[in-house]
Structures are given as C-alpha cells and as structure tokens.
Amino acid sequence: MPARPPVTPRRAQRTAPAAVDSITPHLYRPDAARPVRAKQRRLLAATQVVPHQHAWPQLTFSAQGVIRVTTARETIIVPPLRVVWMPAGMQHSIDVVEDAELRTVYLRPACRPSDDACWSQCLVLEMGGLLQALLLSLDTDADAASPDPAGLGHHGRCGRHENLVEPLLRAELAQAPQVHLGVPLPDAERGDKRLRSLCQAVLRQPARVATLTEWAAEAGASERTAARLFRKELGVSWQRWRQQALVAHALPMLARGAPVAIVATACGYATDSAFIAMFRGAMGKSPKHFRSDRSG
Q1: What are the structural domains, with CATH classification, of the chain?
Q2: Could you read off the pLDDT of 2-14 as tens digits, one per residue?
Q3: Residue whose C-alpha is closest to residue 26's, from 60, 62, 52, 50
Q4: C-alpha R_g of the chain
C-alpha cells in the first residue's frame, strides 16, 4: 500500500533553510546588575539560527511552535513546555520546525543549578508552571533599547527583579525532571561527514519513504558503509536510529493533541497500525498515551 501524501501544516515549503545570526547576544550579556537576561524573536518555519556559542549558560525554549536544537553530538526536538539547558561554551544551532516564538535566557556562570556533572552537558527539562512563570516574567529589551546608567529607571527595575528571580530559577532547574528527546549524531568535528549528512537529511525529511541505500547514495556512501558507520559512531543500527528519529519527530505532535493518523502520515507511514507498532516497540506504550488529551 503506497504511503499517504505527507500532511505538513504550518511547516516550511522551502527546500533550504533561511539562515539568521545568533540574534545579537552582546546586547543581552548577563552580569551582576542584570544576572538573568531574556530575549525573544518570532521566527518562521525552516529558519536556522547558525551554529554559535556563548561564554555563559543559556536556556532555550519556544513559547509557541516547535524547534530543533543541534549540538556536536545530538539533535533535540523541543516542543512547548520543554526547555533546553545549554552549558557555556557549547556550540549549537537552532532549526525552526514550525513557526515559533523563540525565547532565550542567558544566565551568569554562577547560576549553574548545582555541581552535578550533568550540567556540563546539554539537557532537556520539563517546564513546570513556576519555571515557566519565572522565565516569562523576564524583560526582553536589549541594553541599547533601555539605557539606564544610574539604574534608576527601567534597566534598574529589571535588574532588581532578575536578582530576585535568579535563586528561584536555580532551584526550579535543579528539580525539573529531565526528558530524553535527543537523537544522536556523529561528532561535528571528528565524525564521518557522510554519516552526519545522511542523519541531517533524514531529520529534515522525516516523512520521506526511502531505503538506506537511497539515503546513503545521496550522502556519497554505499549502504554497507553507512550501516557500518551507524554502528561504529552511534552504537546503534540504521533501523534503530531511524526509529529514534521518528519517535522524536512524533512526540511533539502527539503532545499537542494531533490525531495518531496525522502523526503516522507525518512520519511516512502508510497505515496507523504500522506506526503504532513501531512507536510501541520504541517507547513501550502506544502513541495515545503521549497525546495531551489521551483521546482517540
């Protein structure tokens, strides 16, 4: 049975992403007076924030829409109500899967939630009610938009608010549940470029029905070489990696209450039953368990 044509509402029709810079981070530098800086930007689907890094840790989330955050070793689908912790100095890029209201919060290095080694890596956290309220309470004006050298006006009021928010934010981050939404990628510097190209192509076109031979040929490798590279560099088979990528693609849609039939189509499945079998095998539960309304 042929695959149903993919239904991709609100998703990009462009063949290549539109690249933008890292959105003027120097105008939001955190310091003792302004310890927690926030910024927001509305970005269209298929926009990519080019690879960059900062000298301070940051939180990234989408108040509306879905984004994908990619580091040297993994790519993470981030739906609303999830927030990504990015340690200082880690290079990353952001791809907009759906039109999104991108929010970024910069923190002083001292705002690391704890000395636990986990905070030295990229993490995805559940954004509970208090954590969300704290993040959304932060002013998003750039330094140049509200000069206040004496600290008596808008800039000073924001700084006093941020100094109150900072310890609460650390506490909320420390106890926020971690969510595993990442899909492993070959290392950006040391990994095989063909394998990384193949993985990125699959992530850009999750609904495409193609064999490993076809994906590998487009990346400049044979099927046998690609299969060997998956096991050598990522520690999983092609089939297992593809399954992880599809589950990561499906979870945000299910969380928004999308019908299983729509999600199955968006993942390239001709039948709901085949998609449900794949999903249950990967997650141990049916797709309906992950839907926001738990209905049909």
Answers
A1: 18-175 (2.60.120.280), 191-290 (1.10.10.60)
A2: 344 443 434 444 4
A3: 52
A4: 20
